[in-house]
Trehalose-6-phosphate synthase (Sphingobium scionense), 464 residues
Amino acid sequence: MSRLIVISNRVSRPNGAANQGGLAVALAQALRESRGIWVGWSGETTENFTGHIGFAEDQGVKTATIDLEEQDVDEYYNGYANKTLWPLFHFRIDLAEYARDFEGGYNRVNQRFADTATPLIEPDDVIWVQDYHMIPLGQMLRDKGLQNRMGFFLHIPWPPTRLLVSLPHHTKLVSTLFAYDVVGFHTEEWLESFRHYVEREMGGTVDGDFVTVGDRTIQAIACPIGINAQEFASAATSEAAQDMHRKVRASLQDRSLIVGVDRLDYSKGLEERFNGYARFLKDHPEHHRNVVLAQIAPPSRGEVESYQQIRATLDSLAGRINGEYSDVDWTPIRYVNQGYPRDKLAGIYRSAGIGLVTPLRDGMNLVAKEYVAAQDPDDPGVLILSRFAGAAMQLKDALLINPYSPEEMSDAINRALAMPLDERKRRWRAMMNSVEQQDISWWRSAFTDRLTATRQEEPEVEAE
Ligand code: GDG
């Protein structure tokens, strides 16, 4: 078995923060099994970059991290990654900032990761680079002479060509993807957009999974990420979850709970969600006092202005809706800016008769899958899901809605509240089957098996 080297912006340690996700767990398992290394930013800053690598081993997972300079964090992480690529790739060119410093910082930091990782890599290692922070890394590793099998996975959408061309030097960035052997996306839609770009803007050709530009052929595949469904289902019946469930139910006094859980991010459609819910309250006075929307939204990327703005917008919108509809003994929205440990979160999902997931664009959206996995099979809740989440391709038995339409959201909430038990069970079973079958281990193996097989399929031909 080849060693796996995972390179991502941040490294999650197995027993790290309570809110660590399934991705960290899945990758940790693969790293442990292959005695691999996880390389990334420590999350710390240093005055002058030294290239010093911090090594650690935690529950069998080896990590190698570097500290970055403040300027690196500003230009690479807050800058090019989160002010340029994130909004653009989520179809928000209105929010995307194109600054030369950002691009310079992004390339500088990627080079730092390449310099850090190269001496750690052995010839037979399989390298798996994660996400939009690290697109050019593979090319930089090739430039250092590495011939390893190398894969890249994009966790966010791939934007339509017409939007992507607004990025200065877009072809330069995209061409670096051809240094990898396998490039993965969550859905056919994102894959299709990638192929379209390559054909239109780079004169490339597509033959099944094989995409060629010049003399480089890579495999581009759709490989939807999943969750650890079994673990999440058990978390939902754990002591901590049951305790949370009792607490929540007691506070509701027989009211129905609608739950939303999202990083506080403009791509998650939170403003639209609040407006859709307000529309529901307006359309259905008969439901007043019978429902509560609990929106859990831990703040993220607080140094980026667009995130400060969405936070201010939501603060005032929640206040306005509550001001308009609350009574002395009922508040329609509970808007919470703190995060919860995973088992408690699972208990909150299970307490809610409706999961409301309304991103305007989302690579996948794991919350939708977690909500499904946490339900009581004998009395499952209803998932209302934006058709613009990658998860909508798999969870077709959710109530799929257009999040830009407050009327559709209002109708879906009304329908979910009235849905008979047998329909809820039927829809839930179908969704749970999908969540269980294409779970996080499936995703990891589907990608790494493809990557490992690349060199067997196409043996390297020695030059004469
Ligand atoms: C990116 C892509 C893609 C949230 N609040 C709490 C908490 N969370 C956890 C959720 C979930 C995770 O954070 C969020 O995952 P999402 O998939 O919903 O969204 P992004 O963070 O934007 O992730 C996305 C994903 O990468 C994977 O490829 O699906 O499309 O944007 O796991 O549970 N966890 C805890 N407490 C909280 O309060 N413990």
Remarks:
- The radius of gyration is 23 Å.
- The chain has a mean pLDDT of 94.
- The longest helix spans residues 305-325.
- DSSP finds 16 helices and 16 strands in the chain.
